[in-house]
Specification:
It is a single chain. This protein has 10 helices and 9 strands. The chain is an alpha/beta fold. The protein has one domain: NAD(P)-binding Rossmann-like Domain (Rossmann fold, 3-Layer(aba) Sandwich), CATH 3.40.50.720. It is globular and about 45 Å long. The N and C termini lie far apart (about 45 Å).
Length: about 250
C-alpha cells in the first residue's frame, strides 16, 4: 500500500499560506489529493487566489465557523484534516498578557477541536478519515519563556489522544506530528541569530530539518498506509528532543 498515492482523496490544511503548512499542502496535492488551503486574511497575498483557497481568522469561533462553512460548501467528504495553523508569542508568566494567552490558545488548541467537531459529518463520510494535528517537540519538552505556546501544544497532544478514543468507533484516526527545528522562512532568522552551528551540535542527526523532512511522515499519517495507527505522536526532530532532555533545557 503506497502512502504517497492519495488520488481521489480530499484534504484541508489549515495555516497553509507559508512554511510547513504550505509544504504539506503541496505534498498532499502532489500525491493526488484535492487540497483546500487556508490562511488568515492577512496572508491573502501569500496563499494566492483560487476556489480551493479559504481565508479565515481562527482566533475566534466565528472564524472557525467561516472556514467550516466554506469547506462544506466545496466538498461533501473530507478524508484528511491537517490542523497546522498556529501562532507563537514568546512570553514568560510574569509578562504574559491575558490577550496574548487567549490568542495562542484559541488558534493552537481551541480551533483544532472546534474545526474537527464541525467537520465531523464530512470526516464520517470518508471510508477512513484521518486527522493530523501538528504539535511540536515542545508539547512535551518545555522551554522557559514561551509559556502559552508550550501549553497550547501540550493541550493539543492530549486532545489528540482523547479524540482518537472517541472517534475510533467512527473509523476516524487521530494522530499528531511533532516537528523539531525545521528551517522555514520564519525560522531561518532565529536559527541564524542563535547560531546554526549550535543547532547542528544539539541535534543528534547533525542538521536542522527541512519541510521535506516533515512531508513523508505527514503523508503516512494521512494515507491508508497508517490505517491501524491512531492516538500516536510521531516525532520528526532528528533526535533534538532527546538532546534537550539530556543536556538541559535552553533558555
Amino acid at each position: 500500500m503506497s502512502f504517497d498515492d492519495l488520488r481521489g482523496k480530499t484534504a484541508l490544511v489549515t495555516g497553509s499560506s507559508r512554511g510547513i503548512g504550505a509544504g504539506l499542502a503541496d505534498a498532499l496535492e502532489h500525491a493526488g489529493a484535492r487540497v483546500l488551503r487556508h490562511g488568515p486574511p492577512a496572508h491573502a497575498e501569500l496563499v494566492g487566489p483560487g476556489s480551493d483557497v479559504i481565508l479565515a481568522d481562527l482566533s475566534s469561533e466565528a472564524g472557525v465557523e467561516t472556514l467550516s462553512d466554506a469547506v462544506k460548501a466545496r466538498v461533501d467528504r473530507l478524508d484528511v484534516l491537517v490542523n497546522n495553523a498556529g501562532v507563537e508569542i514568546p512570553q514568560r508568566l510574569a509578562t504574559l498578557s491575558e490577550r496574548e494567552l487567549r490568542t495562542v490558545l484559541d488558534v493552537n488548541l481551541v480551533a483544532p477541536m472546534l474545526l474537527a467537531r464541525s467537520l465531523l459529518p464530512l470526516l464520517r463520510a470518508s471510508t477512513g478519515g484521518s486527522i493530523v494535528n501538528i504539535t511540536s517537540i515542545h508539547d512535551d519538552v518545555p522551554v522557559a519563556g514561551n509559556l502559552a505556546y508550550m501549553s497550547s501544544k501540550a493541550g493539543l497532544a492530549g486532545a489528540t489522544r482523547t479524540m482518537a478514543l472517541e472517534l475510533a468507533p467512527l473509523g476516524i484516526r487521530v494522530n499528531c506530528l511533532a516537528p523539531g527545528a525545521i528551517e522555514t522562512d520564519m525560522a531561518r532568522e532565529a536559527i541564524e541569530t542563535m547560531g546554526r552551528d549550535k543547532f547542528e551540535s544539539w541535534i543528534p542527526l547533525g542538521r536542522v530539518g527541512t519541510v521535506d523532512d516533515v512531508v513523508a511522515p505527514l503523508l503516512f499519517l494521512a494515507s491508508d498506509a497508517s490505517r491501524y495507527v491512531t492516538g500516536t505522536r510521531l516525532l520528526v526532530d532528528g533526535g533534538y528532543s532527546l538532546a534537550l532532555l539530556r543536556y538541559g533545557l535552553l533558555e
